[in-house]
Design a protein that fits this description.
Elements lengths: L1 H24 L5 H28 L8 H29 L4 H24 L19
Helix pairs in contact: 1-2, 1-4, 2-3, 3-4
């Protein structure tokens, strides 16, 4: 549930920065270029805010590696999800003509599953190698 809440906040951040990119930062550029740059901006900023929230809240109960190591691992895992997200965005936006925000949301949905798997089983795995936590287990009452 926490991962989902963080994910929703990431969607808000992502789309806000797509809007800022289109309307402020890349306003004078050709539309397709502005859309692509705005999409990339939304992805990069939301990855960082999601890392901070996941690190401090979602998987805060796990024994962790050093902060810089976790951040680096998170960006590596997120890079794969971002690649999937942007590839779907580009396919939908440029080849199929889907609206920019619908294309972005579709990419976000695709990246979410891979992000969870990478984060749960690699980035925030307990430093002793265990990827389980007390949250969500039947015997924990949640």
């Amino acid at each position: 549930m926490r991962f989902a809440v963080v994910g929703v906040s990431g969607i808000v951040v992502n789309l806000a920065f797509v809007w800022l990119g289109k309307e402020v930062f890349f306003q004078g550029l050709e539309t397709d270029l502005a859309d692509g740059l705005a999409s990339g901006l939304g992805i990069v900023v939301s990855i960082f805010t999601n890392f901070l929230l996941n690190d401090g809240w979602t998987w805060s109960d796990r024994q962790k590696r050093p902060f810089a190591t976790r951040l680096g691992m998170y960006y590596l895992g997120a890079a794969a999800a971002a690649g999937l997200q942007f590839a779907l965005f580009a396919l939908l936006r440029y080849w199929l003509g889907v609206h920019v925000y619908l294309a972005q949301l579709s990419g976000i949905a695709l990246g979410t599953l891979s992000n969870y798997v990478v984060n749960n089983y690699w980035v925030f795995k307990n430093s002793d190698g265990d990827s389980s936590s007390g949250r969500g287990n039947a015997d924990s009452g949640t």
